[in-house]
Structure formats: C-alpha cells, structure tokens
Design brief:
The chain has 226 residues and is α+β, with helices and mostly antiparallel strands. The protein has 7 helices and 7 strands; from the N terminus they run ααβαββαββαββαα.
Length: 226
C-alpha cells in the first residue's frame, strides 16, 4: 500500500533512477510535473473543495488526505488495462498492465473530496503519484454522485505515450495480470483490490468482472496463490 510519505521529491527521484534501470519511460522532471499541475489547477476555484475521481488504486489507496469518499460515475470514459507496467507490479521480464481511462462509455469509481485547506499539499502529492512519467493526461470531468454532480479531476491515458498498449486482447491482458509482479506486489492483487472496491461501493464494471474471471481461471489452472 502506498502512503503520503512515499511521495516526496527525494523519493520520486529515487523512483526515477530505479525506473530508468528497468528501461521504463523517462520520468517527468519536477519542473515539468509542477507545470502540469499549475495548468490544470488554474481551473480550480481557490477556497473550494477539490474532487478527485479514482477508478483503480486511487479508489482503495488514495495516499492523500481526503475528507469524504463517495461512489461516482463519469460519462465519456471507460476502464482499460492498456498501460505497460515494468515497475511496481511488473518487471521488464514479466510486464504487467495498469488500468487507464480511455474514451467511450461510462465509468463507476470513487470520488474523493479534498478540503480547501488541503488542496495545495494534496494536489502536489497527487501529481507525484500519478504524473511521474506523463503517461496520463489530467482531465476535468463531471462526476455524477447521485444526489448531485460535481466537477473533479481524473487521469486519462495519454495515447501518445510509449507505455500505451491499445492492441492487446482480453486473453493476453489476463495472462499478463495473472503472472506479473514487482516490488509493490502482484498485478493480480491490484485487479482484485479494484474489483473489491467496486463491490464495496455497490457498483460494478463488466470489463473488470470479465478480466477478474479470466485471471481467477488462470490461477485455478496453474495453482497460483492469489
């Protein structure tokens, strides 16, 4: 599990060196990352809450201070395991896949509310967490919370990034997720925690259900310990 202490400029620099050894995509510099944050946060009204929409590990392990977390739905985007993962929950000789948002459909997830006094500090940590390599595009979206709609930020796949893998079929995705692991744990644990977070929130995603069933079947066939 990630924590706030894992995201400092010093830790990020160490991650960048480690990722470079694994041949993963180049990390953004601190200046590039801060420029991205400044551009996106320019649309945030000072003194108001910041809503952050999570659809993967941000749902169950945000690693930032949040004052409220609610199930929410975003239209126009859907989940896809389409980002090459060679660091964290994968390795160069055993690559995994990370969840992303791609255009089309809708996505249920968890919307986290960051109180106004914490927006500056927590957005910095959020950018260090999500924008290490520029594989995502920070994007403002409308989040349907049922009783109300709010504007929030989420992280969409950067389809021009070298880690983007759009052509994998579901069988190959399941095979990679079932066996990949790295210093943060297994790729399948990431999937299982995501599925559990959706179930606990009382929402579902047919795509996650399909991948989950395929990975479970591979584990049962090969006797892999979950």
């Amino acid at each position: 599990m990630l924590a706030r202490k894992d995201f400092t400029p010093e830790r990020v620099a160490a991650y960048a060196q480690l990722a470079a050894q694994f041949g993963d995509a180049k990390f953004l510099s601190e200046e590039e990352r801060e420029a991205s944050r400044a551009k996106v946060m320019a649309e945030h009204v000072p003194g108001t809450d910041l809503w952050v929409f999570g659809y993967g590990s941000l749902m169950w392990n945000p690693a930032i201070h949040v004052d409220e977390s609610l199930p929410g739905r975003v239209e126009g985007f859907r989940r896809s395991f389409c980002m090459r993962l060679m660091f964290g929950r994968g390795m160069p000789d055993n690559p995994g896949l990370m969840l992303c948002l791609v255009p089309g459909g809708e996505c249920w997830g968890i919307a986290h509310r960051v109180a106004p006094d914490h927006v500056e500090s927590e957005s910095r940590i959020l950018w260090m967490r999500e924008m290490l390599s520029g594989a995502y595009v920070p994007t403002w979206v409308d989040i349907d919370l049922g009783a109300k709609r709010v504007r929030g930020v989420t992280f969409v796949m950067n389809t021009s990034h070298p880690r983007y893998l759009p052509g994998l079929d579901l069988g190959e995705k399941a095979r990679r997720i079932a066996k990949a692991e790295g210093h943060l744990g297994t790729n399948r644990d990431y999937l299982f925690r995501t599925a559990s977070a959706l179930a606990e929130a009382g929402v579902s995603d047919a795509y996650i259900d399909d991948i989950h069933a395929r990975v479970r079947a591979l584990i049962d066939q090969k006797g892999v310990t979950p």
